[in-house]
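=== Given protein ===
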Amino acid sequence: MKLPPGVFKATKKDGTLYFRSSLTYHGKHISLGSSEDLRYAAMLYEEASSLLQSDDSVENYSSYEYVPFDKYIILINFRDNEVYFKNPIYLYQRYFSYFLDKDTELKFDTDDLFFYSQHRIQKRGGHFFTENYGTQILLGSRYGIHPFAVSGKDYRFKNGDDTDFRYENIEIINRYLGVEAVADTFPTKYKAYIHVNGYYNLGVFDSEETAAIAFNKARDMLKETGIKKSTPANYIQDMHEDRYYEIYSMIKLPGKFMRYVKSAL
């Protein structure tokens, strides 16, 4: 059987015949996909070949029936920018877009290009995340947005676009869990708090880091009583372990919170 251009026969482990589509463009061999339907495989090759000779942009995808959207982005980026990525990335002059689907365009600074060219972005429950060494990592954590952070309270996107992850567009208001800046104080002071059967004020401190450690200490005490918090402990970057435990040991938590801890024992 003579196969159409760009289509090759292959066999699954169980002996089932299927067809692989691929092409070569600018010296790069590109796999387009596979199907048990010969016509589909042939049309996939035809559309992809036509696309690479066209000037179609992201907005023209609806006119293509066989090329999957992520492959469409990969191909037009390679055509326009002569760089091939395995992920659906399109390069612009000062930034790049990662197209999660035809309705979701995430924007990033070029400093992040290497990472996102190697890590696929996924979305679940309204959250964007990547996988790194088998661990799911929330996208916001790369930009100082801690887990359980509240938009508008702990961080904000300056232009109102929550898909624009360019560094200049992200403002971190509170870097740590259970920590808020106290309004109208100079120099700025920071309040620590924790929620457990109600709201507990843990004190006001001179630095974010100390307030974050106060939250960690309160969390540790609750854990010792058997009360598990779903929120993680704060990680204090660039602080030596000895300094961390020096601050930790000096923090005295308020009586109201300590009475609650004792009652839970």
User: Anything to note?
Assistant: The CA atoms of residues 115 and 138 lie 14 Å apart. The chain has three domains: 1-84, 86-173, 179-264. The chain has a mean pLDDT of 94. The longest helix spans residues 208-224.
